[in-house]
């Protein structure tokens, strides 16, 4: 099966409808990731075929839970889930944040080559990031545990916003360490086509925000 067929069928399984132009851009991103990965080791996934399931579809599985007009992707690495989400939602303002300069260079180049005008890249540590506007959603896929994510990025969340933390198995120990002033709104079990093993999305909001 070609990568294009794999992506199309995977999107159908996820119940996500994307125009052909967006699907082509997703595949171009996967190819770009594979090309840069040979030099920069952006990801452990070695080829485009696996990237469709483990990067594109895995990222897009959270799309139904992304609301609002802005998103911060903390520890973006190779751009997951931020770049696929930005491709799927051109109306969404996405900032990709990573402290690694080589990964940030890739993210900037990807945004240029893929002509993603809704993406900005910030190279630095999340706790030191002070943008003019806070975000409706904060995502993290390969970041520290939940308590660290919340404590380091809470100043970046809008009133009424949510953290969307992507995890493998349900992180019960991490949930127990969350501070008392946040609430776990939901834990969604994600079924990602082509990905074996458990995938969960933890949705967290702050009790203190807006008070």
TrEMBL record:
S-adenosyl-L-methionine binds at residues 75, 80, 126-127, 141. One of its GO terms (cellular component) is cytosol. Its EC number is 2.1.1.170. It is an enzyme of class 2 (transferase). It is found in: Cytoplasm. GO terms for molecular function: rRNA (guanine-N7-)-methyltransferase activity. It catalyses: guanosine(527) in 16S rRNA + S-adenosyl-L-methionine = N(7)-methylguanosine(527) in 16S rRNA + S-adenosyl-L-homocysteine. InterPro entries: rRNA_ssu_MeTfrase_G, SAM-dependent_MTases_sf. The keyword S-adenosyl-L-methionine applies. Pfam families: GidB. The keyword S-adenosyl-L-methionine applies. It comes from the Bacteria. Keywords: Cytoplasm, Methyltransferase, rRNA processing, S-adenosyl-L-methionine, Transferase. Belongs to the methyltransferase superfamily. RNA methyltransferase RsmG family. Specifically methylates the N7 position of guanine in position 527 of 16S rRNA. NCBIfam families: rsmG_gidB. This is Ribosomal RNA small subunit methyltransferase G. It comes from Candidatus Accumulibacter appositus. The gene is rsmG.
